[in-house]
């Protein structure tokens, strides 16, 4: 049997990280088995489904590089198929028309609650007498004739055997009065038609599974294997929500994470392979199994995700990281022709920055001039005593031929200035750093000066010397 999985989000909002983990597990299971992965958009909720949400889901899947083999399929384009199946079920007697008014249903529910019973449809229209008393063209919904005896038993791949008594399940509506089919029914027909072998989804769908199995059996359709993954909690033990930070996949892109970091984090959020923490996508595909997925809820830890992101920024390859950095640089509005190439930026800042957004913000002085120095840094390092070191290193930097502008020659200029003045290298390097960046912290000063460029560095050193002169004049 060839494995075929699906990811079937409802387009009522962005792609949530919980949905992304479900998509990842389904994708990995299919890839591990050399099977097929299907993307299906379950847009039967016509009031809440939006084109913007569909686009957000597709953007999230594409950014995570979770490519699908079939689809995307849209349920709203398959209504004729669903209604054809429902009409066949009406003929076979596995479904029936329900003419109950809203008033009757409300009265029924109130009585059940008053008796302390679970609210469920009482099967009033299921009998032949009621059916004969009405005409088929009267307003009605269509209900599935759920078995009234026995139980639904299925072996959840993750959770083990689950049994639900049929008496706990009512005759759910499969077609509304307006003729539109309902979610639970559409899912069944889709899984049947698309030959889905394994359904991997969140634990909130466990209650839907016995209903869907009963419908599949009524259709004489094969029943897939089911696996229900636990929810993701915030670090406070509550269900993950916006108050815990980003929950949208694309928000993580906006916040400066690499897709590999988020995938690596999500795969470990409920699954393990020994003590290994870092997984390439190829390793995920090779090692993944549903049997290795935990039944317990997982807590989201942003610090762990940041650690992973920092790892990938430093190990994914500077050219690849630069391709993702480009979006963040554009968000900052930089003119990239006025500074170093992005591969240089990645190599310069990778050790210092945990996110690409932080990297884009930190390298501003490489692309834009500044009008004033950071007050604290200038007060500490741009003092009169720094005049001579800055003048000496300025002259040496100016003497470097344009074709010989390199970190090695810049380092030599700094070192020789310190040696000639018989001072520590920091006495030259720190004033130079503040002079060319405007702030007190940066990557190595020689690499920073190289990235900023010769002409711009010399101009800023002159600006720093003027600042020192002004301080001296003010002191006198």
What does this molecule look like?
- This protein is mainly α and 476 residues long.
- The chain is 47% helix and 11% strand.
- A three-stranded parallel beta sheet has the order 1-2-3, covered by helices on one side. A three-stranded antiparallel beta sheet has the order 4-5-8.
- It contains 20 helices and twelve strands.
- The mean pLDDT is 94.
- The longest helix has 22 residues, at 454-475.
What is the CATH fold-level name of the largest domain? Rossmann fold
Q: How many E-type strands?
A: 12
Distance between the termini: 89 Å
* Rg value: 32 Å
Average the pLDDT over all residues and give the rounded result.
94
Structural class of the secondary structure composition?
Answer: mainly alpha
Sheet with most strands: strand arrangement: 1-2-3
Give the C-level CATH assignment of the largest domain: Alpha Beta
Largest sheet: 3 strands, parallel
CATH architecture of the largest domain: 3-Layer(aba) Sandwich
Break the fold down into its secondary structure elements and pairings.
Blueprint: E1 4-7, H1 17-32, E2 36-41, H2 51-63, E3 70-74, H3 79-92, E4 95-98, H4 102-114, H5 128-132, E5 141-144, E6 151-156, E7 160-165, E8 173-175, H6 183-193, E9 198-202, H7 208-218, E10 225-229, E11 232-233, H8 249-254, H9 259-267, H10 281-287, E12 298-299, H11 302-315, H12 318-332, H13 342-349, H14 356-362, H15 375-381, H16 387-398, H17 407-421, H18 426-437, H19 445-452, H20 454-475
């Amino acid at each position: 049997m060839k494995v075929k999985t699906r990811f079937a989000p409802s387009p009522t909002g962005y792609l949530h990280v919980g949905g992304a983990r479900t998509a990842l597990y389904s994708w990995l299971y299919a890839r591990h088995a050399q099977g097929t992965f299907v993307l299906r958009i379950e847009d039967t909720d016509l009031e809440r489904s939006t084109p913007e949400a569909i686009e957000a889901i597709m953007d999230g899947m594409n950014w995570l590089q979770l490519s699908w083999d079939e689809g995307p399929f849209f349920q709203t384009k398959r209504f004729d198929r669903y209604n054809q199946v429902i009409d066949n079920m009406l003929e076979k007697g596995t479904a029936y028309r329900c003419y109950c008014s809203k008033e009757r249903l409300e009265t029924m529910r109130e009585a059940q609650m008053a008796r302390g019973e679970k609210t469920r449809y009482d099967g009033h229209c299921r009998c032949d007498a009621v059916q004969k008393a009405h005409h088929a063209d009267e307003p009605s919904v269509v209900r599935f004739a759920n078995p009234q005896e026995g139980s639904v038993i299925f072996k959840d791949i993750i959770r083990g055997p689950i049994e639900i008594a049929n008496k706990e399940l009512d005759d759910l509506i499969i077609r509304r009065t307006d003729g539109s089919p309902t979610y639970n029914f559409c899912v069944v027909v889709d899984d049947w038609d698309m030959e889905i072998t394994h359904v991997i989804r969140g634990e909130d769908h466990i209650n839907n599974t016995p209903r869907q199995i009963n419908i599949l059996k009524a259709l004489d359709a094969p029943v897939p294997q089911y696996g229900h993954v636990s929810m993701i909690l915030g670090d406070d033990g509550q269900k993950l929500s916006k108050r815990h930070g980003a929950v949208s996949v694309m928000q993580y892109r906006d916040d400066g994470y690499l897709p590999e970091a988020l995938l690596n984090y999500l795969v470990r959020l409920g699954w393990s392979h020994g003590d290994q923490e870092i997984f390439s996508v190829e390793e995920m595909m090779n090692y993944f199994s549903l049997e290795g997925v935990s039944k317990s809820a997982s807590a989201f830890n942003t610090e762990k995700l940041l650690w992973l992101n920092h790892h990938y920024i430093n190990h994914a390859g500077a050219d690849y990281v630069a391709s993702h950095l480009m979006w963040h640089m554009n968000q900052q509005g930089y003119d990239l022709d006025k500074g170093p190439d992005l591969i240089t930026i990645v190599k310069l800042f990778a050790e210092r920055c945990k996110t690409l957004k932080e990297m884009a913000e930190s390298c501003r002085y490489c692309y834009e001039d500044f009008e004033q120095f950071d007050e604290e840094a200038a007060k500490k390092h741009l003092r009169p005593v720094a005049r001579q070191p800055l003048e000496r290193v300025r002259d040496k930097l100016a003497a470097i031929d344009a074709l010989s502008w390199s970190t090695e020659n810049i380092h030599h200029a700094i070192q020789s200035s310190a040696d000639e003045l018989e001072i520590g290298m920091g006495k030259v390097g720190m004033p130079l750093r503040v002079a060319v960046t405007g702030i007190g912290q940066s990557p190595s000063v020689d690499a920073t000066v190289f990235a900023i460029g010769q002409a711009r560095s010399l101009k800023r050193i002159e600006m720093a010397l003027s600042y020192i002169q002004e301080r001296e004049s003010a002191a006198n």
